[in-house]
Amino acid sequence: MNSPQDVIKTWTARVLADPQGIAALDATYKFIVKGPGGGSWVFRCKNPVGVSEGEGAADCTISMNAGDFVCLAKGELNPQMAFMSGKLDVEGDLELALKLGSIVG
Question: Hey, where are the domains in the chain?
Answer without folding.
Answer: 4-95
